[in-house]
């Protein structure tokens, strides 16, 4: 099953990314086993997705602009040789949803560690099937993990993913916080959501797709007006753009480390203290939506299982295994 691999395109991008200067048509033809006419067509196709080239007679082609898309040849150089996540990586200019694609391909034999990315999503989803606007400049990707953990550890998958994202963003100079259970906030506004979809086999998770959406390199004005009071983008909030392939590689590297521990029984409990240090939910008065129920109280802790502990008005503490935290009754969840 080839899925949507494009080895010729990826090899061509890698050749230009690695080149110190112009690359002749003859060199490209020899390296790729294609005619010069076929090379020209491949270059024109790359120009349609943001690449720019300068061509000089008898000298060759030089890549003037290489966009920071989440493409395999641009992410691969930043991945450790031992990484089990991120290889293979499938990029497309547009997908309805990276999670939907990854789930469909998982049923067809997509290997463990595969990552599905898109420049744009037209049908991205958040919690409860809410639309997730996914324009050019964001980071939209899904990671497939096979048999990652026992079923009772399934909630750890997104909790650990939130920590992996936090670590990678911190490495890039983004001051972020975690909102239970797995949102990432910058300056109190949401910039990242995580959605896990999985299939169980008895008491084990057979496979899971971890979908991550990061509002990265586009202005907050491109978000729907009705959520701008509580969501933003890293570009707008921080004033700088991320080097997206490097950040994706950092997320995958951190996720790989955390999931390796999960497979050996070291789940969320082993990193709970670190996770709590970056969680801004604790100590706040919250409203937690659980289905049609709203639980009101003060968030006092998150236990080793990742459950939120909420102190109610009567002094009792309620353990919430899942839900959506609101900090005000008017908050419009995304």
Automatic annotation (TrEMBL):
InterPro entries linked to this entry: aa-tRNA-synth_II/BPL/LPL, ArsR-like_HTH, Bifunct_BirA, Biotin_CoA_COase_ligase, BPL_C, BPL_LPL_catalytic, HTH_11, Transcriptional_repressor_C
Flavoprotein listed as a keyword: no
PROSITE patterns per UniProt: BPL_LPL_CATALYTIC
Positions of biotin binding: 97-99, 121, 190
UniProt keyword list: ATP-binding, Biotin, DNA-binding, Ligase, Nucleotide-binding, Repressor, Transcription, Transcription regulation
Annotated GO MF terms: ATP binding; biotin--[biotin carboxyl-carrier protein] ligase activity; DNA binding; transferase activity
A Gene Ontology term for the protein's cellular component: cytoplasm
Statement: the UniProt record of this protein carries the keyword Transcription regulation: yes
Catalytic activity: biotin + L-lysyl-[protein] + ATP = N(6)-biotinyl-L-lysyl-[protein] + AMP + diphosphate + H(+)
Residue ranges of the annotated DNA-binding region, renumbered to this chain: 25-44
Function: Acts both as a biotin--[acetyl-CoA-carboxylase] ligase and a repressor.
HAMAP family with a match to the protein in the record: Bifunct_BirA
Protein name: Bifunctional ligase/repressor BirA
Natural source organism: Alicyclobacillus hesperidum
Gene: birA
């Amino acid at each position: 099953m080839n899925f949507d691999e494009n080895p010729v395109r990826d090899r061509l991008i890698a050749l230009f990314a690695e080149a110190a200067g112009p690359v002749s048509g003859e060199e490209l033809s020899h390296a790729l086993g294609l005619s010069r006419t076929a090379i020209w067509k491949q270059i024109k196709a790359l120009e349609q997705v943001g690449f720019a080239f300068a061509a000089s007679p008898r000298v060759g082609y030089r890549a003037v602009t290489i966009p920071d898309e989440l493409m395999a040849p641009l992410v691969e150089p930043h991945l450790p040789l031992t990484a089990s996540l991120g290889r293979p990586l499938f990029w497309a200019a547009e997908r309805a949803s990276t999670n939907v694609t990854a789930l469909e391909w998982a049923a067809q034999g997509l290997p463990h560690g595969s990552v599905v990315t898109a420049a744009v999503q037209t049908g991205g989803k958040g919690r409860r099937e809410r639309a997730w606007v996914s324009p050019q400049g964001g980071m939209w990707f899904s990671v497939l993990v096979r048999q990652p953990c026992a079923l009772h550890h399934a909630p750890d998958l997104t909790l650990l993913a939130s920590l992996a994202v936090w670590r990678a963003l911190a490495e890039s100079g983004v001051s972020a916080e975690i909102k239970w259970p797995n949102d990432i906030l910058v300056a109190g506004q949401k910039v990242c959501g995580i959605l896990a979809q999985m299939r169980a086999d008895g008491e084990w998770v057979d496979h899971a797709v971890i979908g991550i959406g990061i509002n990265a390199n586009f202005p907050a004005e491109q978000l729907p007006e009705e959520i701008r009071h509580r969501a933003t983008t890293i570009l707008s909030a921080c004033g700088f753009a991320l080097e997206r392939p490097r950040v994706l590689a950092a997320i995958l590297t951190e996720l790989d480390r955390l999931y390796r521990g999960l497979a050996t029984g070291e789940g969320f409990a082993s990193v709970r203290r670190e996770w709590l240090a970056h969680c801004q939910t604790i100590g706040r008065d919250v409203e937690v939506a659980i289905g049609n129920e709203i639980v009101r109280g003060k968030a006092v802790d998150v236990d080793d299982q990742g459950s939120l502990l909420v102190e109610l008005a009567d002094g009792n503490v309620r353990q919430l295994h899942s839900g959506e935290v609101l900090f005000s009754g008017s908050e419009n969840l995304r």
